[in-house]
């Protein structure tokens, strides 16, 4: 079997193991992705009625990366995401805010599987106060480390859009605050199961004018969101909103209200907002932020792989390269 | 058959014929309700695949009030609600805002059924402007006439809570504005189909402390609603919100954000807000408004019957009594 020559020599395996998906990365000694696999075996693939969850997760790991382990010898395997929750293979704990992501590598949890030791990254938690609800993230901390560098000392806002979009405030790799918005899940419910769904015709096209119109309505008065949403129905009945535009109008309104509300909270910095997510959602959040006067930077959506490599460096699982990030 | 003596002599039949229900009132010559029937034969009972919708609606009317018509002779029959829409028996049109509800009786639509002429009340419509979406109501105009009197010349706000809650601004019986909030439908979706539903245990009890907490969170920053909603999950995971309290916390937050946003819009008057709806929703809106510093008046939920009687008077279907409202 042909061996790969440095610098492409595989150095570790990274797993971004979430609720509904498992992404595996074969990572080289400079942190570069040598191979990538995307599967649907998120932690939901092992149900609460499993008699031996650890064995089930072990089998999934073996079928996903067993050939890499066999081909390249015993590589370190590092995982982030919901695999480290009570519904996953083991509770990997949390670091309390404020915290520096450089500390993640010092708090790994090790689970011995049949064929390999699995190291798991802790999440981050915000404890409750008089005015703020508690909140946790798990998986996003690794993405954040992958896209942030200590040199970014100015306060920055990072958006990780999804079903539950995370808004994170940081200075360099130090995380000071985050919050979760349900606008993605609410969009899903309204566009499939509400009275608004009856007038909408889903399409794969992006109707940017309808989206921008929604952003304007949502951001003009974010407090009136539950009223403004009904205008998707009345404009559609009126004929000025076409059936295939309803969902983009709705998406724009929800994202517009969310972005406007978050920008009110984050006025201390005017630095570009960093966005990391799927192409479609990144485009939408970037467009809404730009329309509301904020510049954006779109980060590499494979930041999780970079984050896993950095955590492996910090923890000593792989040697630190001289030019590596601290 | 025993005849009723005046003033209890039946004078008319009123139908509050909505999307999912049909309420029939036998009304005396002073406007009093002599008998009432509540059925589920809303306009949805006649589907779009009916070969003869008019005949189907006629049969429903006959089975609901046929015995009253037979017993008391040919009484005028007046209906309000979605029966007057394109999905109903005939499109009964709209009056444009601003309008006086005293004019409703001049614009009835007559549909000849097999056994009786059915008169239908028009709805109200707000036409679109640069900044406002169009909106319509159908059925609520009759409730409003039933609970308002011309003597209330000060600007008043009326709330008609439901799946789609209506907020109406009026001076006496003159309607100047209204808007629709989807908070009721959003509550239904979130409490049954979202990630929040997994931690909630529905109960029939009203957990007023959880509701009040939600009102506070929702009204403190209504613009942040899509973020604040997630706190129902994090407080429940934290243990400070019990499973049987989650839905009331959620209900309080949605109503709190809606009420706070509406009070910002309606600052011209400090008169008590009038609420007309089901006991449970009336209690919730009243509690939220009171906590936010506004007095409330709870109107008779059978205002539709009173409104139908007044419209019958205005249109000449029944004689106007000397002491009747104009």
Automatic annotation (TrEMBL), chains A, B:
Q: Which InterPro entries match?
A: DGOK (IPR007729), DGOK_C (IPR042257), DGOK_N (IPR042258)
Per UniProt, what is one Pfam family of this protein?
DGOK
Q: Which GO terms describe its molecular function?
A: 2-dehydro-3-deoxygalactonokinase activity
Which residues, by range, are in coiled-coil regions?
Answer: none
Stated EC number for the protein is 2.7.1.58
Domain of life (superkingdom)? Bacteria
The answer to whether UniProt assigns keyword Transmembrane helix to this entry is no
Q: What is this protein called?
A: 2-dehydro-3-deoxygalactonokinase
């Amino acid at each position: 079997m042909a061996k790969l020559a440095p610098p492409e020599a595989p150095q570790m395996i990274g797993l971004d193991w979430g609720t509904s998906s498992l992404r595996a990365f074969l990572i080289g000694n400079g942190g570069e992705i040598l191979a990538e696999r995307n599967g649907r075996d998120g932690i939901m693939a092992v149900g609460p009625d499993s008699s031996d969850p650890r064995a089930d997760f072990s089998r999934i790991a073996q079928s996903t990366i067993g050939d890499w382990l066999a081909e390249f010898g015993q590589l370190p395997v590092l995982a982030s995401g919901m695999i480290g929750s009570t519904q996953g293979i083991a509770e990997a704990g949390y670091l309390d805010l404020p915290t520096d992501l450089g500390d993640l590598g010092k708090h790994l949890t090790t689970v011995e599987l049949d064929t390999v030791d699995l190291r798991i990254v802790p999440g981050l938690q915000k404890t409750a106060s008089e005015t703020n609800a508690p909140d946790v993230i798990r998986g996003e901390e690794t993405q954040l480390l992958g896209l942030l560098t200590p040199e970014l000392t100015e306060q920055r806002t990072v958006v990780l859009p999804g079903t539950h979009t995370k808004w994170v405030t940081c200075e360099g790799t130090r995380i000071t605050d985050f919050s979760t918005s349900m606008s993605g899940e609410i969009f899903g419910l309204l566009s499939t199961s509400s009275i608004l769904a009856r007038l909408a015709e889903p399409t794969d096209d992006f109707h940017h004018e309808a989206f921008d119109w929604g952003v304007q309505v949502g951001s003009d008065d974010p407090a009136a969101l539950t009223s403004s949403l009904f205008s998707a129905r009345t404009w559609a009945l009126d004929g000025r909103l076409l059936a295939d535009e309803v969902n983009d109008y709705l998406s724009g309104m929800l994202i517009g209200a969310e972005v406007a509300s978050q920008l009110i909270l984050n006025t201390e910095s005017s630095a570009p907002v960093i966005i990391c997510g799927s192409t479609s959602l990144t485009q939408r959040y970037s467009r809404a932020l730009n329309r509301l006067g904020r510049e954006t930077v779109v980060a590499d959506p494979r930041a999780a792989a970079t984050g896993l490599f950095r955590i492996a460096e910090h923890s000593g699982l792989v040697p630190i390269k001289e030019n590596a990030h601290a």
